[in-house]
Amino acid sequence: MLMTSQVSFLINKKHEKNDEKTLKMKIENLSVYYRNFRAIEMVNLPIYAQSITAIIGPSGCGKSTLLRALNRMNDLVPGARTEGQVFLDGMPIYVPNVDVVEIRRRIGMVFQRPNPFPKSIYDNVAYGPRLLGIHSRAKLDEIVERSLLAAALWDEVNDKLDQSGLSLSGGQQQRLCIARAIAIQPEVILMDEPASALDPIATLKIEELMGALKKAYTIVIVTHNMQQAARVSDYTAMMMLSDQAERSGTVIEFGETEQIFLNPKDKRTEDYVTGRFG
Amino acid sequence: MIQTTPIRQQRRKLINLIMLGFCMLATLLVIAPLIWIIAYVIQQGLPAINWSFFTQLPTPVGVPGGGIANALVGSAMTVGLGLLFAIPIGTLAGFYAATHPDNGLGVALRFSADVISGVPSIVMGIFAYTIIVLPQRHFSAFSGGVVLAFIMLPTLTRTTEEMIRMVPKSLREGSLALGAAEWKTSLSIILPAAFNGILTGVMLAIARAAGEAAPMLFTAFGNPFLNLDYRQPVATLPHTIFVYAIAPYEDWHAKAWATALVLISLVLLLNIFARLITWWRVRHIGTYH
Question: Which of A117, A167, A180 sits opposite B171 (nearest CB)?
Fold first, then answer.
């Protein structure tokens, strides 16, 4: 049984959806190991441009690992190893001579807990552009304003840009982190449960923001909250631990969000999205 | 529910009261000597303090007046030189140990920092005498700075290491995810985030080094004249206290107390100054701790 509110969200969304599918990223036979432990196994997944792809599934099934594989953040974990390939605009990112810094500039990330730098609001947003060598005050002012406007935070902070980013509320901090990510105009934004540490009102703001951002960016979001996935995403990937002895996570079903929630093909997906799964 | 008897309840309350009393007594026993020492130093030292005590050089025995300008300058020089050597080395080493916790070099650093902090400072003084003063054939502010650097290094490396470890991992990831290089992340994000804690470590190190008399006997040596040359011997505050205190003149004893009061006050002022910086930074930059 699906809740009626969930269904109405899905029906409303159908009209605004972009019917053209352009492949932005492609995940091919991807497995990630932490030392001897295989966290995710043989994941195949398309990521379509200018749309929101949600990754859902129970705790510990490798959702964050999969997300962090997309901008090679797993490289930072000692003992992490990756097999398979991820393509960005057809270019493989797991090849020896790829510039990881360049990959991370094209694929931005927003984390589970807001992590503004202990700097002023202005300097938080200007950090990325400065890394790219932009130091003109006028240019930075323009980028900071544009990014904060796009992150729906400008009206709340434009009179206190010199205050610490940590003086903001949790929801504002997370939007500051989104502004920081889009300041360098990445092509893809990865979001790892961006609203899980926030209250419902702040969550709603982040969700509205995502809807606006997808016009310009490709978004991949990991979420525990199925209503959130149903509300915001165009595509949904369902992950689950395999039933084999060595339990690693994998994508068991992928499709348009309506299909996953209204007409799941896999019994396990159906059990999970209808809340029957423990 | 298991019932307790009224007698057991009373006994429990009584024991609680007695133990609490012991804890308070122990606390007072710790605080009392501190207050006593400070009060005594103020009482003994304050009468000899006036403006010329800070601006004049020592006078010969029997000649009234005179001050500790030479020791103030000398202490500033030796501690300053010590910081100049110890801060870059200590923070970089602490940074390395914090970011490479399982690395053999990090383990060795932690071990040697613990050992060095246990070595008596007079031994450090003899060491600096052997490796610097003897080859150069004269005492100097420079050799004093080196020995103070050795004394400050363990505190600096350990606090830097602890403070950098306390910086949330998510900050580093946030910076790297924006395409920042590892060195840029360390320099622009991690070190500033740990700054307040590192500053506290620097203050502790200064407080310790500024009060060291024993190693100064072998290095800075003391100097009754004002000297600004780092290659020449200088007087220092703790060494001056030592010299005045063991002399048989009443007048010099008063000066020893006054110098002690100046030393304590300077360390206190420096700490207040550091607190102000920390407070300002927390207000304007924010903190994760």
Answer: A117
Q: Yes or no: say if A253 and A266 are a contact pair by the CB < 8 Å rule.
A: yes
Which of A101, A115, A166 is nearest residue B179 as measured by Cβ atoms? A101
Cβ atoms A62, A40 nearer than 8 A: yes
pLDDT at A17 over 70: no
Stretch B181-188: mean pLDDT, rounded?
Answer: 90
Set of chain B residues whose Cβ sits within 8 Å of the Cβ of A108: 177-178
The minimum CA-CA distance between A111 and chain B, rounded to whole Å, is 8
Q: Which domain holds residue B214?
A: 73-284
Which ipTM did the prediction report?
Answer: 0.84
Of the candidates B119, B138, B134, B137, the one whose C-alpha atom is nearest the C-alpha of residue B221 is B138
Residue B152 lies in a domain: yes
Domains and CATH numbers, chain A: 4-273 (3.40.50.300)
Sign of CA dihedral B121, B124, B125, B126: positive
Say if B2 falls within a structural domain: no
H-only helix segments in B100-222: 104-118, 121-128, 134-136, 141-166, 169-177, 182-185, 191-193, 195-210, 214-218
User: Which among A76, A166, A184 has the least Cβ separation from residue B179?
Assistant: A184
Q: Work out the mean pLDDT of chain A and round it to a whole number.
A: 88
pLDDT of res. A6: 52
- Backbone φ and ψ for A30, nearest 5 degrees, come out as -85, 125
pTM of structure: 0.78
Q: Is residue B225 in a domain?
A: yes
A257/A239 Cα distance (integer angstroms) = 14
Q: Please report how many Cα atoms fall inside a 13 Å half-sphere around the Cα of residue B248, on the Cβ side.
A: 0
Task: Tell if the CB–CB gap between A167 and B286 is shorter than 8 Å.
Answer: yes
Radius of gyration of chain A (CA): 19
State the CATH number of the domain containing residue B146.
1.10.3720.10
pLDDT classification of B282: cutoffs 50, 70, 90: confident
From the CA of B194, how many Å to the nearest CA of chain A? 10
What burial letters (b/e) apply to A52-91, b meaning 16+ CB within 10 Å? bbbbbbeeebbbbbbbbbbbbbbbeeeebebebebbbeee
Please report, as a single letter, which amino acid is at residue A37: F
Number of domains in chain B: 1
Q: What distance in Å separates the CA atoms of residue B289 and residue B282, rounded to the nearest whole number?
A: 10
Q: How far is A119 from chain B (nearest CA, A)?
A: 5
